[in-house]
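We emphasize that the prediction below concerns an isolated chain of 77 residues; any contacts that depend on oligomerization or on bound cofactors are therefore not represented. The input was used exactly as deposited, without trimming of termini.
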Amino acid sequence: MSIRVLARELYQAQQRLDALRQAVAAAPEGERRSLAAPLRAAEEEWRLLRRMLDGQKGTESPAGSGRTGPGSGGRRG
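Result of the prediction step, given as a token string:
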């Protein structure tokens, strides 16, 4: 998945999470219990997407940067 797609998915997950948190805060006590499972699922989805996005950002290097890194097969200098 591209960074752009992951970022969009993360944004949408954040919106769903915010809406669920507001619903839990406004709900009567009995209804809060029924919203707990969807809230946990939304939180886990958000964390998963965040980790995926962080991983994508960490693995991409700017094109043409001239840098060599671990496993690049050579030294510069």
